[in-house]
Design brief:
Bound molecules: nicotinamide-adenine-dinucleotide
CATH topology of the largest domain: Aldehyde Dehydrogenase, Chain A, domain 1
Strand content: 15-25%
CATH architecture of the largest domain: 3-Layer(aba) Sandwich
Structural class: alpha/beta
Strand order of the largest sheet: 10-13-14-9-8-15-16
Helix content: 40-55%
Number of domains: 2
CATH class of the largest domain: Alpha Beta
Number of helices: 14
Distance between the termini: 53 Å
Amino acid sequence: MNQSTPEQPADVVSRLRATFRSGRTKPVEWRTAQLNGLREMLTSHGDDIAAALHADLGKSSTEAFRTEIDFVIREIDHTLEHLDEWLRPEPAPVPAYVGDDATAWTQYDPLGVVLVIAPWNYPVQLLLTPVLGALAAGNAVVAKPSELAPATSGVLTRLLPQYLDTDAVAVVEGGVPETTALLAEHFDYIFYTGNGTVGRIVLRAAAEHLTPVALELGGKSPAFVDRGADLSVVADRLARGKFLNAGQTCVAPDYVLTDPETARALEPELARAVEERFGAEPRTSTEYGRIINERHFDRLASLLDSGRLVTGGGTDRATKYIAPTVLADVDPKAPVMQEEIFGPILPIVTVPDLDGAIGFINDRDKPLALYVFTESDTTRERLAAETSSGGLGFGLPLAHLTVSDLPFGGVGESGMGNYHGRYSIETFSHRKAVLQKPLG
Ligand code: NAD
C-alpha cells in the first residue's frame, strides 16, 4: 500500500475482496487470531484509548474502561469461548418423502466484505463490537469510525492495523464525502449505527447492490414509573442511566412517564440522586462528561426551557458543559418531546394511569428501549405484551445491552437487525441450507 496517497474506496474493497476469495478469513484459527489481536490492542493501549475518549467526550477513565474498552474485551472473551459451538452445523429433520437415507443441516457461511459505520457517542464500543462480530463470522471488514470523535478515530486508525490482518481489515477515516464514496461500493453487508436520517441514506445506497443492512438507530426511550415503586431506588437508577456519558447514550431513558402524584414525589428524589452522583456542582465532577460539539450543545441548550426546572439547567458553551437537568410538568408538545434528546435533560411527562402510558408509548415511534419500574406483575405483563420496543428493561436501564446472550437492536424507527454474542454470527453470516442424499 502506498502511504502517501490514500487508497481509493474501490481499491480498498477489491483488495479485501481478493483476500476473502482466497479463503484466508474462513478458518476458525484466523478468526480467533483476529479476536486475540484486538484483545491485545485493547489491553496494551487501554490508557491511550481512554485518553482519546477523554479528549473527545470528557469521558472519565472509569467510564471509558467500563462502557467501551472492557465492554469490548468481555464481548471478545464471550465470543472466543463459544465460537466453535456457535459455528457448528445444525441438523434438520428430513421429511419421509425425500427418503430416509437423506440428511439435512444448516451451516454458517461468511458473507464477504462488510462495512461498519460507527457513531461518535461510544466510538470504541460501537465500532469494535460489530467489527469483532464480523471477523468472528469470517468476513473481511472496512471500519469507518465517526469523524465527530476525531481523537478516538485517530488512535483506532493508528492501532488497528498493528494488531489485525491488514489484507482483510481496513480502517477508512472521514465524514460525509468519504462515507458517501464508500457507500457507492458493493459490500456484502453494511452495519450502520447512528441517526435515522443517515440510516435512510445507507439503506438507499445498499438497495443499489441489494446489500443487506443492519441499522442501529435511536429514538425516545421512555421510562415508566408505576405508583408504589420505591422512588429512591428508581431515581438512583434513572440518574445513573440517564446521565452516563452526559446523556449521549442511544439506550438512555429519554423521558419519564408517570402519574402526577408519583411525578411530584419523584422530583426531589431525582434532584438528590443527581447530587449524590455528581456533587452540588457537577461541572467540577471528574465523572461527568461533556457534549460532543457546539452544534449539539446549542441544540440541547435550546431545550432547557421546555418545563419547570427541578435540578440543573446550568450551561457553559466554552467547555460544552450542560448540567444534569430534570424538567417537570413537560407538555408532550414541548420541543424537548419532539425528538430524541441525546443529552443530559430528563423531562417528566404525566399520564393518568397505566392505560394512559401504554397509549402514549404506542402513539409514538417504536423506541430502542422501554424501561419499567414497578412491583406489579400485571403491569410488567401488560407493558411486555401491549408495547413494542427494541429492548425492555424492568427495574434497570441500559443493562440489557451488556448481556452478550441477548440480541441488541431496534424495531421500526429505532432500527433493524441486531448483534452481540451469537446474534453477531447470525447477522454477519448466511445460514446456508444443505441437503445430502446418497447416489447409490
Ligand atoms: P454520527 O454523526 O457520528 O454519524 C454516524 C456515522 O454516519 C458516522 O460515521 C458519520 O460519518 C456517518 N454519516 C454522517 N452523515 C452521513 C451521510 N450524509 N452519508 C453517509 N454517512 C454519514 O452519529 P449520530 O448519527 O449523531 O449518532 C447519534 C444517533 O445514533 C442517535 O440517534 C443515537 O440514538 C443513535 N445511536 C444508536 C445506537 C444503537 O446502537 N442503536 C448507538 C449509538 C447511537
